[in-house]
Structure formats: structure tokens, C-alpha cells
């Protein structure tokens, strides 16, 4: 049984008030709250077990190294990866995608080569490719969403041409909630000899992921959305791609030997993990993933589907509210505007007065905003601890905003 009230008790921040109202936290798409077990793990690591990793033979260093390295296996289990050496630990999706851009794509691409993207990508999966466009003349080839916000996978596949060197696509849109059939894209791209990078920042939070089945070449996740600490994350890289990648950053821990005349690199994944890492953040991420797997990703997905369906029903009754993205089986993410002149920031401010936390802005998705003909939306994004009663509170706050701005 999925006991959401028991789960909510695991998150201390959910018991606080904001502006004299119980907190209704619906900004999970930006960053999720942390359960007490993660907070305790971080406190314990700093209070009793902190040391640098991989560098010492003393007790504290051994403990920190063992706990830190164990997270690599935890992430592999979470993502359905058989070989944990394909997991590179880092600070999150942004670092992971930049690592691929600089370490894999840059040495392989020249002027006229193409990267296929969907228009609903997050800036983390856009800007690194613009670097290649600016510096090497790489062409970005965009695939638009459909009228309902869905992404036609066949259009992505058809966009792969003889000059395509990479497909970079989200698994779940952070604005529209659209789920993408990345397996179909990966299968087709593999037949054409084109690697696929998947931004899993949102999808890995909301549904089971099995990368051995999906078959992508790269898959990035970020810890702060996974109920873990900020500054933590990982990227999965297929072994054959690891062999093709040059180091992204140089420094300690990613080398075997260094002399005045040469450097010998460590084997992957250590080859791509230069310097002192986010030790405690990564340990906290491992605890967060264990927490999620303890609840069961299927159970989390089913709970969020129920919340989504209830929210769809309630929001449909507000004929002055424009919801962006109505793709079938979308995630529990709702971006919306109000009829009239009310700006998303003003709406968000009114909702905050009622204790409801939502995001307002372009959501780091400029090309999608341009495609939709908007400058900003409000976004309510639900997580494993949200409830139907919180949907009701959101509706009440939206009705107040409409009354004030109509």
C-alpha cells in the first residue's frame, strides 16, 4: 500500500507553514524536497565520517570512499544498468551533458555536421550544443512538438540524416510533462549508426527506467530532483562511447601517472572524475535513491498518475485557464497561463500567499516558449508526496488569482 501521509511525514519541510498557510509544494520540477533519511545521512557524514576519498589509507578516508563508491552501484540499479563502471558521478545533468559535448562530440564534429533536438529541451540540453554551433559550425536540427504537446518519434527518426552525428532528446518534458518514447528513437538511430543522448532529469524521478532496455548511449540524471542533495548526479555512458571520450577536466584522481613530459589517464569512469568530488552530496543521493526504490518506482508512478488524472479533471473546470501540453499519458506537470493580462510572476505571487509554491518563468526552455508563442508560464509539478487535497488548494488559489486579475 502506498501511504502518502506516512511518506509526507518523512519530509520535515512539509509540516511548515508559508504566509500562515500549510505549505503546498508544487515546484518539484525545479527541485524536490528531502526526506529525513537524506538529511540524517548528510549530517552524519559531515559530523562523524567526513574525509576525502580515494586518497587516504586511514579509517575515515576508507569509510568515506566505501560509501561514496557504493553510490555508483546504487545508481546502476536505479537505472537498470548491469555494469556500474558505465556510471560517471558528477554534479548533475548540466555537467554530464557538457562532458559529452566537450569530451565526445567536439573531437568528432565539424562544420555541417548535425545534432537533432526536440524543441522542448531544457537549456542544459541545448546550450552545450550551441557551443559546438558557434565554435565548429555544427548545425542544430529541431523537431517541433504536436498541437497537444506530444512529440512524434517518427519525426525525430526522419530528421536523422547522413550528416547527423547525435540525437539529444529529453525523456520527459519539464514544461509540458510529455513522455518521449526514447527506446523507439534509440532503436532507429542505432540502425543508422547515430548515438543518442537522453536527458533523464525529469523522467528518472517519476517512473521506472531501464537503460539496458532503452539502449541509449548517454543518459543524464541530477540528484536534487531525485529527493537528494544539489550538486550531485551522474551520467550513464555506454562502454564503447567511454572508449571514444577524451577527459572533460584534468586534475587529481583521474590519472595514473603525471610527469613533466606526459600524463597517463586512469580507466573509465575515474578518467572522467577529476578533482575532489561532491562526496557528501553523492552519499546523500545514494540514500535518496534507496528511499525511492524502497517505495517502489512503479508505486510512485501509479500515485503520481492518480494525482495527474485528478488535476486534469479539476483544471478542466477552469475555462479561463490555458494549460500547455495535453499529451496522452503525460507526467504530473502542468504549465498554464490565465486569460487576460496577468503575468505568470503575478499569478505565482498570489498563489504563494496561499502557501502554494509553483514555478513561474520560461523554465529554461526558451525554444519551447517561442514555439508556444509565450514568454512565461506558471508550472505546478507534482511529486511522490503530493495529494489530491493539495490539488484542491491549488484550484482555490487559482480561482483567487482569476478573481483578482479579471
Automatic annotation (TrEMBL):
The entry assigns this protein to a family as follows:
Belongs to the class-V pyridoxal-phosphate-dependent aminotransferase family. Csd subfamily.
Protein role:
Catalyzes the removal of elemental sulfur atoms from cysteine to produce alanine. Seems to participate in the biosynthesis of the nitrogenase metalloclusters by providing the inorganic sulfur required for the Fe-S core formation.
Q: Tell me, which GO biological process terms does this entry list?
A: cysteine metabolic process
Which of UniProt's keywords are assigned here?
Answer: Pyridoxal phosphate, Transferase
| Top-level taxon of the source organism | Bacteria
Q: Which cofactor does it need?
A: pyridoxal 5'-phosphate
Catalyses which reaction? (sulfur carrier)-H + L-cysteine = (sulfur carrier)-SH + L-alanine
- Protein EC: 2.8.1.7
Which Pfam families does the record associate with it? Aminotran_5 (PF00266)
- Name all Aminotransferase class V domain ranges: 24-394
What is the name of the gene encoding this protein? sufS_2
UniProt protein name? Cysteine desulfurase
Q: Name one GO molecular function term.
A: pyridoxal phosphate binding
* SUPFAM superfamilies for the chain: PLP-dependent transferases
